[in-house]
Design brief:
Blueprint lengths: L6 E6 L7 E6 L3 E7 L8 H11 L3 E7 L3 H9 L4 E2 L1 E5 L8 H4 L3 E4 L2 E4 L8 E2 L8 E6 L4 H16 L5 E6 L2 E2 L5 E2 L4 H16 L1 H10 L8 H6 L4 H9 L1 H15 L7 E5 L3 E3 L4 H12 L9
Parallel strand pairs: 3-4, 10-11
Antiparallel strand pairs: 1-2, 3-6, 5-9, 6-8, 7-8, 10-14, 12-13, 14-15
Helix pairs in contact: 5-6, 5-8, 5-9
Length: 296
């Protein structure tokens, strides 16, 4: 391993008896990382570690978003997602820059890593809602339903002060209509789910658990819960169901959602939570925070 602090190392004649390291002085430049101290799932350390390997001359400095410097940088470069990785233009002189140049966006005399490539999911401009989690699920995702079922069971046994709201994932098409990633069948399930949430909130969580999305027999869990499938269907197919779906699709469309299951923490941080244990850890952190829950 040809690694030496402040130097760029290359292995010459690798795999042979003559293998050796050659070093050249690394290009030095300032590299600022704007961070949010209240981000529960941000992990800038992985990107910083990769940067140190690619660009050993990087002079890395963390900047808190709350500081005057942080606020000025956010405004100057129109930063919408954190962590934000800002590189001085001298990075372009580094030998390995060409390997990663496609991942940079130019902002004045600086270069910024594209947020979607480095998992920057803290949304700077959104109003913070302390102790609040919005859960988004694809209406016909079996994997999402499994995780949600575990969460529902856990919360039933462990009531929380954190406000939790459930939404379906959709987006608005060019005609302003709400549609699901998987098409018409998922559209229909999304509208039925939201109708149950609005008109039968006491049955909603049980429906999420009982509904086997592998089956087309959506009426069965409704009947088991004492609901009338025809009434649910009529509401879902009408303007009420369509408007409920539009509302969720408009909400989801403002967020960087790329998974079947996503969590919006405190109305600012989009997180991938794939198991109950991770959810519990985040929930406990929110419960122990000193910020009061705001009435919705």
């Amino acid at each position: 391993d040809c690694i030496e602090e402040g130097m760029l190392g290359v292995c010459v004649d690798a795999g042979t008896a003559q293998a050796r390291c050659q070093y050249q002085e690394a290009v030095t430049f300032e590299h600022l990382v704007i961070v949010a101290d209240d981000c529960l799932t941000c992990n800038q350390l992985d990107i910083i570690s990769s940067t140190q390997i690619l660009f050993p001359g990087a002079l890395i400095r963390l900047v808190d978003k709350r500081t005057t410097e942080g606020q000025k940088l956010i405004k100057k470069h129109d930063i919408k997602h954190l962590p934000a990785y800002i590189f001085d233009s001298e990075v372009e002189k580094a030998p390995k820059f060409t390997e990663v140049k496609s991942g940079f966006l130019r902002s004045g005399d600086k270069l910024i890593l594209a947020p979607e490539l480095v998992g920057s999911s803290y949304l700077v401009s959104r109003t913070k809602k302390p102790q609040h989690i919005d859960i988004f699920l694809a209406a016909l995702s079996g994997r999402a339903r499994l995780v949600i079922s575990e969460i529902i069971d856990y919360l039933k046994e462990n009531p929380t002060s954190v406000q939790i709201d459930y939404h379906v994932i959709g987006f608005l098409n060019e005609n302003g209509q709400a549609v699901s990633p998987m098409g018409l069948g998922e559209d229909e399930e999304a509208r039925r789910t939201l109708v149950i949430k609005k008109f039968h909130p006491d049955k909603f969580l049980e429906y999420l658990k009982l509904r086997d999305v592998r089956s087309s027999y959506w009426e069965a869990p409704l009947q088991e819960l004492g609901l009338e499938p025809n009434k649910i269907k009529k509401l879902a197919e009408g303007e009420i169901g369509r408007q409920l779906f539009r509302d969720d699709a408009e909400f989801a469309g403002k967020l960087p959602l790329s998974e079947e299951l996503a969590f919006l923490i405190n109305n600012r941080e989009v997180a991938r939570i794939q198991n109950l244990e991770t959810f519990r850890t985040i929930l406990k952190t929110l419960e122990n925070s000193k910020e009061p829950t705001k009435k919705q």
